[in-house]
Amino acid sequence: xxxxxxxxxxxxxxxxxxxxxxxxxxxxxxxxxxxxxxxxxxxxxxxxxxxxxxxxxxxxxxxxxxxxxxxxxxxxxxxxxxxxxxxxxxxxxxxxxxxxxxxxxxxxxxxxxxxxxxxxxxxxxxxxxxxxxxxxxxxxxxxxxxxxxxxxxxxxxxxxxxxxxxxxxxxxxxxxxxxxxxxxxxxxxxxxxxxxxxxxxxxxxxxxxxxxxxxxxxxxxxxxxxxxxxxxxxxxxxxxxxxxxxxxxxxxxxxxxxxxxxxxxxxxxxxxxxxxxxxxxxxxxxxxxxxxxxxxxxxxxxxxxxxxxxxxxxxxxxxxxxxxxxxxxxxxxxxxxxxxxxxxxxxxxxxxxxxxxxxxxxxxxxxxxxxxxxxxxxxxxxxxxxxxxxxxxxxxxxxxxxxxxxxxxxxxxxxxxxxxxxxxxxxxxxxxxxxxxxxxxxxxxxxxxxxxxxxxxxxxxxxxxxxxxxxxxxxxxxxxxxxxxxxxxxxxxxxxxxxxxxxxx
Length: 505
Hints:
Elements (H helix, E strand, L loop, with lengths): L1 E4 L2 E4 L3 H12 L5 E4 L11 E4 L2 E4 L12 H8 L20 E6 L7 H18 L10 H16 L8 H22 L31 H9 L2 H7 E2 L4 E6 L23 E5 L3 E5 L1 E4 L3 H11 E2 L6 H9 L1 E3 L1 E7 L9 E7 L5 H9 L5 H4 L4 E6 L6 E7 L9 H16 L9 E4 L12 E3 L8 H6 L2 E3 L2 E6 L12 H22 L1
Parallel strand pairs: 1-10, 2-3, 2-11, 3-7, 6-15, 8-12, 11-21
Antiparallel strand pairs: 4-5, 8-9, 9-10, 13-19, 14-17, 14-18, 16-17, 20-21
């Protein structure tokens, strides 16, 4: 068993782990080590070089400009296009082509679509005002208000025809799936209405991309301390347990696992799968909420150091899966101005729509692709399309060939074209089946408490000494689910460490 010693151990080399490390170095606190379970840093930011460009398998956008630290870093270091420097408005290019087609490749009536989108927008605005009432789920609230508003806008006899109601439902069904992707949930029926307004959307463009991928952000953050950082990062270190001495907890010491590795009751022991023990004073846990959900009952020893309220908050909060299926072709077959292909799947009735969205009587094996909410070109890989999918992760178990065939079928049907080739290559994210992530990002699930994120973020103290810190997107009360939220939590915990260290010295 190899043994390492350090003052601070940072678990995870994603954006919160890296920002925590850099903030410590900026303040001349060098007694720390980072332990990353995989072979790379970045976490859910995962830029993959491909031919003369790159593909983003994880985070892709900077969400907002005003008061966004990631945007500030990107602008200062020329990581994004110059156009964003002097404008905080959504950049609307009228030449861009957005396709809203039905299953037969026919375009949805533009006037009806505009009214539907307006009513959906109004419904979400109403949802953000809800906070004190009984907490229904978000999906039903949006649908009920959407139908109410559509009935106010359209002629009364419009809804007398079942096919018209089905079309209105089909548009809602598409929006439902898009919102699942945007919020990182499997279903809007699983989202809390009362806590929907807790997310703070930063002003400015929401889809800013890095010229060289998110990898360039990490390179920029590390550059100033490149040597110091590289000396402290340890890859392929899979954490097994965090051990606290039972003496510190005033427990009986018979069979104390901590004491097998350290006789100092004030130290923390970390055990890794590569037969390494790390002795430290404090640990910063930046692992995903999905990982915590899966491992919280076994990771911490003794488990009683995690209070029941924190455990309940971890288990209540939502953590969904958003995946990308990237289809790569010899050359584009689509219009050079294409921005998005939105597939409006048919519905037979409101009851059938609900069954589909809830995946009741829903054969995932044959219908998994119905959860693809959009297919769009990539900005820096001209021969590729991205199919975004949330709601199910059945496709993670399929072969590349099976996924190619299904995606090609969808493109042919919704574009009304038989001449669409199969992609020559395919790249896919598999965030749910990756044991170190178990999904993509967090959301307030139906039944959550308004202070669940606060509880998850709260450090664990014993005898007034902070031992275990928590960082990551799921620990930011306003910016959960975002890279800038995760970044800020790493800095938050670094500053907590610096402050407490200075007080004790």
